[in-house]
Amino acid sequence: MAQNSWTNLIFILLHADDVALFSCSVDAMQNLLGVFKTFYQICELIIRVDKTKMMAIQPRNYPTATYTGEPIQVMQRFI
User: Fold this and answer.
1) By C-alpha distance, which of 55, 48, 46, 68 is closest to 20?
2) Among 8, 11, 53, 56, which residue has the least CB neighbours within 10 Å?
3) How far apart are the C-alpha atoms of 39 and 36, rounded to whole Å?
């Protein structure tokens, strides 16, 4: 039986107050951000867009995602 390649992917990592989201496209990232927006509103938490970053593995000219209408800064690398 063929296994769905999506079943073994990591979509989220959590550590303290940091979150790392993973997606295969900007549309998928926008969907994840929408889920987080709803969750954070329910929990009365705030996402600081000015501290939020995104990075594309390929292609490098990846379009940016937005959160509440604000573009998320695209990084070339994380240190």
Assistant:
1) 55
2) 8
3) 5
CB-CB contact of 76 with 60 (8 Å): yes
pLDDT in tens, 4-60: 555 556 677 877 788 888 888 888 889 989 998 998 899 998 889 999 988 887 766
Which one-letter amino acid corresponds to residue 8? N
What is the CB-side half-sphere exposure of residue 57 using CA atoms within 13 A? 4
> Residues 40-53, buried b or exposed e (16+ Cβ, 10 A)?
eeeeeeebeeeeee
- E-strand stretches of the chain: 12-15, 18-21, 53-54, 66-67, 70-71, 73-74
CA distance 75 to 79: 10
